[in-house]
Amino acid sequence: MNQVKHILSSLIEPLTKVETYETLAIKIIMILIYIIAAIIVISILNKVIEQAFKIQNKSRKGNKKRSKTLISLVQNVVKYIVWFIVITTILSKFGISVEGIIASAGVVGLAVGFGAQTIVKDIITGFFIIFENQFDVGDYVKINSGGTTVAEGTVKSIGLRSTRINTISGELTILPNGSMGEITNFSITNGTSIVAIPVSIEENLDHVEKELNKLFTSLRSKYYLFVSDPVVEGIDSIDNNKVTIRISAETIPGEGAAGGRIIRKEVQRLFVRENIKMPKPIFAPYDEQKRG
């Protein structure tokens, strides 16, 4: 019984002393100072990193999308390092041996190694994505996993563990890097617009092609996304009431579909302006005798 009283008194006695609360308050204030300092340091380092890459781009005319990707990577690494230093410093202020934790982490790491395989896989895949330049921030990509498309859109950010993709309909998809299988990048090579334009079979095709070529000469200067003037490839098909003209155009990466929409709009305006006829449906005469 006396031993129990002694233990309880040894636990309660420090709580009755003012020095205990003063020490605790000082430690809490120090923790807050470390956290605020870490936030300020990370903010300053992020700006320094951004400025360093801006200067590099101006001097070497580097790839801006590639720079955004590397900026994101370096900032993430710096953030992890700063917080690791802050946390270990705080623990040491409370008398906790950081070396002992690190040594224990090695033993525990062996025990949970199988459970952490997914995280390790995500990080390793993230390094390969970044350093193999599979895609950059701002690229339009399609990600498949197991033969199924899991995300398609513009890359918002690339981290060591996950990648954020804005889909064409506005959703933000966050994918673990290790879950990515086949990656299709639409922003590396130039795009191609393929458009089929139907024209009335009664039209003079030489005249139509001449007017189209005049139009296409002006499109390249009017729209930035065309790498070269659209070209009339020829006749795709001839039906009872229409002729289908095939048009192709080279665009900047990822803008093939947008180029096709522009061509259709401009061709429609041309046909209205030049009174070029579009195909009309053919109505067969109604014969009651054949029906009977």
Automatic annotation (TrEMBL):
The keyword Transmembrane applies. SUPFAM superfamilies: Mechanosensitive channel protein MscS (YggB), transmembrane region, Sm-like ribonucleoproteins. GO terms for cellular component: plasma membrane. This is Mechanosensitive ion channel family protein. Signal peptide: none annotated. It comes from Staphylococcus warneri. Belongs to the MscS (TC 1.A.23) family. May play a role in resistance to osmotic downshock.
